[in-house]
């Protein structure tokens, strides 16, 4: 079953300076049990895409338009408040970057997990607390019986992120959406949290959407990748293919610029220029001002996302030309 | 032998009862980049701030070009402030939003009463270009720039006085992936051109591998290992260094593997042990306190050296 279907999603924000299009015609799907990575830099539209999918954006100032936007088979554009409340948490749950601001500082960890469980299920508080403890144990918190009585400030960042994952799992969602879940964490804790997410996914068979700026996180965790830049999808494909033979010049440049891949002090391959300003994007392909392969047509035509190889798409007129010439 | 650019001897910082930095020895040789790595709470930032005397040490000495600056008054420090400069992680909060970029870059010259206002403006433009920005940026404001451009401004301001020692505290951590390489290259180019000595504080081991000559690893306020960068990446000896390196995501989905994680207790129990005769030169004998011992050349690891078990 298709858990997520996004077709031609556009998200704009009305601001003082005018309308900002954060997401410009994004499409992708997620099959049940699949793990998908959305990789992009700040301003690429990766987080806004997923917030729009769950209808978490305040509308207005946000305006969402799409040919199709569905989650667990339900039309998210037509769903009313009540329907949304039952979809969120049950069909899809989200884990955010900063667990400290996602949790309420004045309530205990146990209270907040119980609140989530009782909001979606008809169970007693006592049973819900037992389930909260079981969930904390599942995310490998050893003294779970004690931790339910803790307040957020008593836990480290890594522990809090485990709590957030436990909370997201509390209603057995069909898909977990993790938005930069390890960006604020130390590297050793990041490795543990990523492993935990992978283990839980393998065990429950839930779908996973991993949003990140870190290609290393993508390489370690997901099966399929969506590369975003300037509010658009640049490339999609299986993770191994993307890393072995990236199609889009942006993906290639991004992979080449990662430091520390070879031993020795050395200059890095840099991408000149800066990411586009969402309020004033360049015409044509958003990457063309920084692209080493750009031709005049790149600044006038916006390339469509096209199938370039089995299971692989890219939005680049130069890639098509290359393949035709080969 | 010329004195190292920067030397910290047994530097210690206690806040109330807590020892954040515990008897750290650190040397930044001239024209080298020394990376100080460790996780949050390891004391790496406090160590960097003590090197600049922005935080006063509880004990230990700070030497700049061989000269002890630990007890100098703020006034006597002023000439040394020209030699040591700093770039912080967050360029948004470290640049005054009310000043133009030209004013920001030229401010250190004004503070040290160098040149006339028009000479200072020329210098600022020169430095804008040197860090890869157009001279016309001098009249713009920080909010008009991207994160990478702001970090270029921070670098220009830090180096306009001709500093010989640069402390860079996570200068690339807040930057986008596509811009990170630009700033790493800029620092590397300027380091070569100006003969800078750099203390590069970072938790990003990938950047460290491409930029640093030496790596110093800190854990809970202590240096647990230090050595040439290639040696640390190829043959780390301390279990904590190995854990840190092992946790770095691998940019190749085909080599995915399950990791095993050591608990804090297992890490502590894993401190290397040597018998005194195994160590050259002979260290203090039979003490339960861990000490830094030389392995090969300039590769040191914290170990317990004792005959007993």
TrEMBL record, chain A:
Keywords tagged on the record: ATP-binding, Cell membrane, Membrane, Nucleotide-binding, Transport
Protein name, per record: Peptide/nickel transport system ATP-binding protein
Listed PROSITE patterns: ABC_TRANSPORTER_1, ABC_TRANSPORTER_2
Major localisation: membrane
Residue ranges, annotated region (Disordered): 262-286
Family annotation (Gene3D superfamilies): P-loop containing nucleotide triphosphate hydrolases (3.40.50.300)
Transmembrane regions listed in the UniProt entry: none
GO biological process, one term: peptide transport
Keyword Heme recorded: no
Protein's organism: Kaistia soli DSM 19436
PANTHER family: DIPEPTIDE TRANSPORT ATP-BINDING PROTEIN DPPD, OLIGOPEPTIDE TRANSPORT ATP-BINDING PROTEIN APPD
Membrane topology: Peripheral membrane protein
Residues in ABC transporter domain copies: 4-255
MF GO annotations: ATP binding; ATP hydrolysis activity
UniProt similarity note: Belongs to the ABC transporter superfamily.
SMART domains: AAA
Localization: Cell inner membrane
GO cellular component term, pick one: plasma membrane
UniProtKB/TrEMBL annotation, chain B:
Listed name of the protein: Peptide/nickel transport system ATP-binding protein
Broad class of where this protein is predominantly found: membrane
Cross-referenced Pfam families: ABC_tran, oligo_HPY
GO MF term (any one): ATP hydrolysis activity
Lineage: superkingdom: Bacteria
Locations listed in the record: Cell inner membrane
Keywords, alphabetical: ATP-binding, Nucleotide-binding, Transport
Residue stretches making up the ABC transporter domain: 6-245
Cellular component annotations (GO), alphabetically ordered: plasma membrane
């Amino acid at each position: 079953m298709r858990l997520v279907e996004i077709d031609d999603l556009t998200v704009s924000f009305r601001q003082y300076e005018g309308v900002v299009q954060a997401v410009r015609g994004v499409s992708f799907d997620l099959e049940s049990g699949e793990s998908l990575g959305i990789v992009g830099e700040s301003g690429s539209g990766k987080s806004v895409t997923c917030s729009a999918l769950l209808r978490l954006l305040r509308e207005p100032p946000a305006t969402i338009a799409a040919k199709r936007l569905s989650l667990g088979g339900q039309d998210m554009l037509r769903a009313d408040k009540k329907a949304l409340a039952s979809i969120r948490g049950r069909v899809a749950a989200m884990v955010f970057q900063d667990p400290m601001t996602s949790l309420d500082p004045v309530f205990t960890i146990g209270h907040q997990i119980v609140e989530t469980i009782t909001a979606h299920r008809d169970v007693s508080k006592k049973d819900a607390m037992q389930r909260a403890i079981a969930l904390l144990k599942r995310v490998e918190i050893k003294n779970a019986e004690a931790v339910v009585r803790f307040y957020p400030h008593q836990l480290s960042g890594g522990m809090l992120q485990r709590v957030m994952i436990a909370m997201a799992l509390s209603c057995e969602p069909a898909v977990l959406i993790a938005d930069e879940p390890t960006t604020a964490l130390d590297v050793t804790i990041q490795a543990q949290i990523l492993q935990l997410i992978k283990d839980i996914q393998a065990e429950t068979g839930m779908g996973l959407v991993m949003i990140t700026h870190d290609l290393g996180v993508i390489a370690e965790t997901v099966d399929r990748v969506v590369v975003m830049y300037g509010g658009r999808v640049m490339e999609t494909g299986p993770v191994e293919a993307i890393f072995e033979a990236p199609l889009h010049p942006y993906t290639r440049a991004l992979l080449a610029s990662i430091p520390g891949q070879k031993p020795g002090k050395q200059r890095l391959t840099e991408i000149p220029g800066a990411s586009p300003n969402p309020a004033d994007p360049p015409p044509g392909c958003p990457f063309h001002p920084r692209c080493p392969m750009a031709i005049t047509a790149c600044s006038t035509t916006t390339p469509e996302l096209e199938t370039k190889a089995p299971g692989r798409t890219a939005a680049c007129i130069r890639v098509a030309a290359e393949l035709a010439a080969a | 032998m010329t004195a190292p650019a920067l030397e910290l001897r047994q530097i210690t910082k206690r806040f109330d009862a807590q020892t954040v930095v515990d008897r750290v020895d650190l040397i930044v040789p001239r024209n080298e980049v020394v990376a100080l790595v460790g996780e949050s709470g390891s004391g790496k930032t406090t160590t960097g701030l003590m090197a600049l005397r922005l935080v006063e040490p509880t004990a230990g000495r700070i030497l700049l070009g061989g000269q002890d600056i630990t007890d100098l008054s703020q006034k006597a420090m002023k000439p040394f402030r020209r030699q040591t400069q700093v770039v912080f992680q967050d360029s948004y909060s470290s640049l005054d939003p009310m000043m133009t970029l030209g004013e920001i870059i030229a401010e250190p010259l004004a503070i040290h009463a160098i040149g006339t206002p028009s000479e200072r403006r020329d210098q600022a433009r020169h430095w804008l270009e040197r860090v890869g920005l157009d001279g016309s940026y001098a009249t713009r404001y920080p909010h008009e720039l991207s994160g990478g451009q702001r970090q270029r401004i921070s670098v220009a301001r830090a180096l306009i006085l001709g500093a010989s020692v640069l402390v860079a505290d996570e200068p690339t951590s807040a930057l986008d992936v596509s811009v990170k390489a630009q700033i790493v290259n800029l620092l590397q180019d300027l380091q070569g051109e100006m003969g800078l000595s750099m203390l590069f504080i970072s938790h990003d081991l990938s950047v460290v591998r491409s930029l640093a000559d030496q790596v110093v690893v800190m854990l809970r306020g202590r240096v647990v290992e230090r050595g040439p960068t290639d040696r640390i990446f190829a043959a780390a000896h301390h279990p904590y260094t190995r854990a840190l390196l092992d946790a770095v995501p691998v940019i190749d989905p085909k080599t995915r593997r399950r990791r095993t994680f050591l608990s804090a207790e297992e890490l502590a129990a894993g401190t290397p042990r040597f018998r005194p005769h195994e160590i050259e030169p002979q260290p203090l004998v039979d003490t339960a306190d861990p000490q830094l011992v030389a392995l090969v050349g300039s590769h040191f690891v914290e170990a317990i050296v004792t005959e007993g078990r």
